[in-house]
Amino acid sequence: MTIETESRKPMIEAIGLSKFYGPFAAAREVTFSVGEGELVAFLGPNGAGKSTTMKMLTGYIAPSEGLARIAGHNMMEDRIEGSRHLGYLPENGPLYPEMTPSGMLSFFADARGMSSAQKKDRIDAVVDICDLSSVIYKPISKLSKGFKQRVGMSQALLHEPDVLIMDEPTAGLDPNQVRGVRKTMRRLSETKTILLSTHILQEVEAMASRVVMINEGRLVYDGDVAGLRQHGEAENGENGLDDAFYALTREA
Ligand SMILES: Nc1ncnc2c1ncn2[C@@H]1O[C@H](COP(=O)(O)OP(=O)(O)OP(=O)(O)O)[C@@H](O)[C@H]1O
User: Fold this and answer.
1) b/e string for 215-242 if b means 16 or more Cβ within 10 A?
2) CA 19 to ligand 1: nearest atom
3) pTM
4) CA quadruple 245, 167, 204, 101: dihedral sign
5) What is the rounded average pLDDT of the residues 192-199?
């Protein structure tokens, strides 16, 4: 997959992205690109700068330095056009606890100016993709965390974006919920370009063939899973991903 990356159209581009909070750098010169149709895992320990980088990529925060592009659109100068291509699932999912999924999706469809026919089609489609039919009339606050995540995904998918940026979509879920969310992600990966952050190594094995890894705000690996394993082997002769993770992220 990585070999093909260069010939694919770049849909998510981080070009020298840095974010400073005072003297602290949450991200430093992060550069990578995700080609059309790829599913890339964005890996790193807690506090590595994954969410910060994703927020810059989606245009939610301005980079201190560098450039973010979605489907070729600069997310600072041309955010509205870029956002048409983009579905974003932020770290803690949706925040409309008093609404039902049905009400929330209807609200966002209206906000996006969909016609009533288009609205019905799109809501039916995302309810199906995210397996929400059993909960669409329940308040979001009463749903399990797994369903809440899928409600967040349905909102991100409503306008049929071709690029998805998902910040830890399986964080805090039980194993069955994780299965449900992964199944949804795999389905989506058939037609979309996806960047998915995680610090769970099994996630990488289960879903992605390419990994971009950051530590302390810097990019430390960009390549396939087999290459990542080799870092583990160099560490102690084992080729487990946890050895590779340790080798690339341990404190100096
Ligand atoms: N608004 C802010 N002001 C100051 N520091 C911040 C701000 N946002 C993030 N940081 C810091 O930047 C670093 C990177 O945070 P970030 O949330 O991007 O990491 P992460 O890799 O997503 O971590 P996690 O896996 O825990 O979500 C952390 O040390 C965090 O405390």
Assistant:
1) bbbbbbbbeebeebbebbeebeeebebe
2) 12
3) 0.89
4) positive
5) 91
Tell me what ipTM this predicted complex has.
0.95
Domains and CATH numbers, the chain: 2-85+162-249 (3.40.50.300), 93-160 (no CATH)
- Which atom of ligand 1 has the smallest separation from the CA of 55? 18
Ligand 1 test: best mutation among 43, 46, 52, 55, most atoms within 8 Å of CB? 52
Query: How far, in Å, is the centroid of ligand 1 from the Cα of 24?
Result: 10
How many angstroms separate the CA atoms of 132 and 55, rounded?
27
- The minimum-distance atom of ligand 1 relative to the CA of 26 is 12
Phi-psi region of 144 (alpha: psi -120 to 50; beta: other; left: phi over 0): beta
